[in-house]
Design brief:
Number of helices: 9
Mean pLDDT: 88
Strand content: 15-25%
Helix content: 40-55%
Length: about 400
């Protein structure tokens, strides 16, 4: 659930009021997109403020670090022991500006809640000192050393727009639902609620609206937005397999199966914090599955190696027993043609490598002295067979 601009407008005012007079006593990186600020006040209880590209809320949940956040070290260096001076938003853009001050410097932490989201640490003149994602597109460039520029604004300021501005965006043959959504930049859930309350067909072309319908729509939109921004809330959450969302105001759709919560912030804490935790579990699960796969592959290789060593050990022992049998039949020289033939039948032969005599048994090569009696050669082969078996344990 993306955070709406009008919801952020409320949160900015609420959190700024709650954190007045507080300073930063610690910062933790929760994941690559989320930071947890521990705020301290000499006379009030500590506050835990979650700042994430998904939203911003005061949390009551204990969340341990899930993955590294590349901004953490820089933020700790510049913001620890600094005071929260102000939190603001420009219009209803989904961007929050958190200004911190200490005895020497002032910094602005900019949080973008649209697209992939972004976190940027700037000096007071908005020069970027560190950021989560660099951007280089036609209308804006974000990288260390350049001045921060917000994206081009679309639509009108939905908090302060006038009736004549509203009428201008209705000068379109587009359906009223799409016109409101695009022209005012409102999320689908608010557009649907506004259309439900107006009883107007959402597919009706905007240019076909009557004056009474326009007035009714305008009043409903202004009331809805005002209720959200000013905190006139009756907050609920939906948290099931199909969807998870937080609603600051009660919607008229009775089929939403919504559950009441004490505040919009608490709803965000329930939904957003759980999403962070679930993402962490997924991350750990993915890492574990990868490790398990690596171990399974290693195990398969080890099993194949054990089979190979077992077979090799068995073949060497077989040749050793064969030499004892040949000795019992009166043979004494491994170079005896009869023994040579028998060895060949067993895929074995006496060869020389770089002038050294080697008994090749399958893939195994054992150095031997061909002048030794057969029992001595057989004994050496048994020793080699035992040595091969010893490798199985390792």
């Amino acid at each position: 659930m993306p955070l709406a601009g009008i919801e952020l407008a409320y949160l900015v005012k609420e959190i700024e009021t709650e954190t007045e007079g507080y300073y930063v006593s610690n910062i933790w990186g929760i994941n690559r997109n989320s930071l947890l600020f521990k705020l301290h006040h000499p006379k009030k209880p500590d506050i835990m403020l979650m700042v994430s590209t998904t939203g911003m809320w005061i949390t009551k949940k204990k969340i341990d670090s899930i993955e590294p956040n590349k901004l953490l070290r820089r933020l700790r260096s510049d913001l620890l022991r600094s005071k929260i001076e102000k939190i603001e938003q420009i219009g209803t853009e989904r961007i929050a500006y958190l200004t911190f001050s200490n005895f020497e410097n002032r910094f602005v932490l900019i949080v973008e809640f649209f697209g992939e989201g972004n976190l940027l640490l700037c000096n007071y003149n908005k020069k970027i000192l560190a950021l989560l994602h660099s951007i280089d597109v036609k209308h804006r460039q974000l990288r260390v050393g350049v001045e921060y520029t917000p994206p081009p604004t679309d639509g009108i300021d939905v908090i302060n727009f006038k009736k004549d501005e509203f009428e201008k965006i209705l000068d379109s043959s587009t359906s009223i639902g799409k016109t409101i959504g695009r022209g005012l930049g409102l999320p689908k859930k608010y557009v649907e609620e506004i259309i439900r309350l107006s009883s107007i067909d959402r597919q009706k072309p905007s240019t076909d609206l009557t004056k009474n319908e326009i007035i009714s729509l305008y009043d409903i939109i202004k009331t809805t937005i005002s209720n959200v921004v000013e905190g006139n809330h009756d907050p609920t959450i939906i948290d099931d397999e199909e969807s998870s969302d937080v609603f600051p105001i009660r919607f008229s759709d009775d089929n939403r199966n919504a559950k009441k919560v004490s505040s919009f912030n608490d709803g965000l804490d329930i939904i957003f914090s759980e999403q962070i935790l679930q993402k962490g579990k997924s991350l750990y699960s993915s890492t574990a599955e990868k490790k398990i796969k690596e171990l399974e592959n290693t195990l398969d290789e080890q099993k194949k190696a054990i089979t190979t060593v077992t077979e090799k050990s068995g073949k060497i022992a077989e040749i050793a027993n064969l030499l004892f049998t040949m000795q019992a039949e009166g043979k004494s020289d491994i170079k005896d043609p009869k023994i040579v033939d028998v060895l060949q039948d067993k895929n074995s032969e006496l060869i020389k490598e770089k002038g050294i005599s080697v008994l090749k048994i399958g893939d195994a090569k054992i150095k031997i002295d061909p002048n030794l009696p057969l029992p001595s050669i057989a004994s050496k082969l048994f020793d080699e067979s035992k040595k091969q078996k010893g490798a199985i344990k390792s």
